[in-house]
Amino acid sequence: MTLLTIDRISKRYGHVQALQNISLDVAAGSRTAVVGPSGSGKTTLLRIIAGFEQPDGGQVTLDGELLADGPVAVPAHKRGIGIVSQDGALFPHLSVADNIGFGFERGAPDRERRIIDLLDMVELDRNMLIRRPHQLSGGQQQRVALARALGRKPRLMLLDEPFSALDTGLRENMRKAVARVLQSAGITAILVTHDQAEALSFADQVAVLREGRLIQAGSPQSVYLQPLDRETALFLGDAVMLPAVARNGFADCALGRVAVDVGHQGKVEIMLRPEQIRVVPDQSEQTYRGRVVEVEFGGATCTVAVSLEGVALPPIMIKTSSVALPSQGDRVRLDIAGKAHVFGNR
Ligand SMILES: Nc1ncnc2c1ncn2[C@@H]1O[C@H](COP(=O)(O)OP(=O)(O)OP(=O)(O)O)[C@@H](O)[C@H]1O
Fold this sequence. Notes:
- By secondary structure, the protein is α+β, with helices and mostly antiparallel strands.
- About 20% of the residues lie in helices and about 35% in strands.
- The protein has 8 helices and 21 strands.
- α3 packs across α4 and α4 runs parallel beside α5.
- It is globular and about 85 Å long.
- The two termini are about 30 Å apart.
- Adenosine-5'-triphosphate binds near residues 13, 42 and 43.
């Protein structure tokens, strides 16, 4: 079931077309990540959903209720939408308890119980209740902000770069914790992030924006492995792109013959993710494909650059584990796992 429908939304600021004809459905109980380069319109889209901006055209519908359409504009505080932003935006003069309980009726008999339940939900210790925000770490502050937003029982939660101020390890923990909390509360969420890996691991649906347009929306697997175009492919991760000739479910390229989806014919461009490529030492004149020109040791993930024999292409950069790294000058072939993705031409 669809909870949120964004239908042909456009927004212009002076000469800047911030959003152009955006349509996106968000399923109830799901998590959507919106990604895109800086200035692509992510924040504008979130602000329109929240009700802080009115679109120039198009509609926003939440759970069957029209929130924005021409002159119709349900005010932000009546939309039932929760927001957690980058800085958490806690009230500095209030305790954790009062931050979480902000908006609850003062004398309500179950006020304390509800605050404690929310604190438990975001996995914070009860001795934090009397602290002020400045006595908490960044991650703890984000949890309080999440608890406060959850306390209002939102129909939809908007997460605007909520993890970006946290360092890597904590960021990953928080991402998992937030996904867990949202899932157990059955709350639909939209996350805006600059971190592609974060988007791919957090979401059921990834929406890619570029210059105010929605380029592609789909499962993390589909946008990563079957990106619509080169730019999207490179935005979501490293990619090896090669010219090839396709026929009957295979493509011949500088790496040899690789599997592709059936239906592509003739000259095409294929894409492989570097982790699909395995560097194999190969001395055979018949099967070796190139030479290692550079090896960069990087701990868990190392990079091997292979210059292909007889092909006027820049060296191919392959991510590999540190186990059995080849050496500079080694002759190698490149084995491919899975299918290569073919752009267009079908
Ligand atoms: N209030 C405003 N007035 C004028 N232009 C604006 C306003 N808000 C956004 N813009 C412009 O609209 C475009 C989209 O901005 P938006 O903030 O939505 O992008 P973004 O993808 O969130 O960027 P970032 O990743 O840098 O946060 C940009 O060109 C921006 O300069």
